[in-house]
# Entry
Amino acid sequence: MAGAIPYPVSTKKMSNDVVCIADIEKAGSDRMASEAREFYNSGSNDQQTLSENTSVFAKYKLRSRVLVDVSNVDTSIDLWGRKVAFPLGLSPAGVQAMAHPDGELGTSRAAAKSGVNMAISSFANYSIEDVVSAGRKIGPIDHAIQLYTMKNRNVQERIIKKAETQGCKAIFLTADSPVLGVRYNEHRNDFRTPAGLDFPIIGWTSEEIRGRTHEAGHAGFSEDAHSWAREIPWLRERTNMEIWIKGILTAEDTQLAMEYGCDGILVSNHGGRQLDGVPSTLDALPECIEAAAGKIRIHIDGGFRRGQDIFKALALGAECCWIGRPVLWGLVYDGQQGVEKTIKILYDEFKRCMQLTGCRTVSDINKNSLALISANGRLAKL
# Structure
């Protein structure tokens, strides 16, 4: 169990004034103590990458189409052998019980009720079995387990076996964190996970967690001597789950993921929390799509705040988009119902965007739906 909620959370019913993700962000952020808000919302160094993750979408213009029958739009995609409601998943954000006592349990229930999938963080405040069970009691849902490259192989192997036993479909191997990014607010606040919150998946108690800084805990946990040759074959020997690499931003690493037989990649910059100055994920996506040449599945996270953002990423070649901070804001705002509202906002906007661009199925979404302002100031189709 996660224990008592460490920060006040409003029990106020959801307002009709909350109609977009920006509203969810404000409502959730306003209800958090400053330490929690700065941990969830901040990025590394000067937060350039964090900012660009959201601002980048504006440079792509949507090309609307008219007189198309969009009365029966199908927003679904097939993922891991099952249809999901639309191309969205809930990212493996950690320490969710700092946002709401239900934490990952509420998120799993919301995902199942909304027809989307969820990835479970190694730093979840509830066990894998509890998170998986919470969702399945509501309806069909698939989970992935997020892993770091860990110094303690015994713990890593135990997590893998537990996840596979519980029916998780994939490992999301976070490969961009041999060391933590430089996070000024965590240093200024001497951030510690609030008392009463354990990390049961990796076997850390609240007392152990609070006895060291976040950075010191990560340094003793994450393997900085990792490599493609060390990690991927080791995982393959121990699981039948799919192996996806999370944190890829370049053609070179996309090619390596294919060479090592990985099942998919997540174009990700860790929400702008690792190396500041790397490109936004949307800017990195075309390079990875071109390198993949259709030979590996490509998902993306980072900065998605509108259904139109999801549409644009799909038009550039992504299969599915994942969100982290909007889930946390939704949890603070109104627990499971707040996450459900977050998902519904994005679904409604995504469906409306499909209709207004004349796309009746997700497979209709392609580069022809986008345009850019060219160097001569004219609008040019991609």
In short: The CA atoms of residues 34 and 299 lie 32 Å apart. The first strand starts at residue 61 and ends at 62.
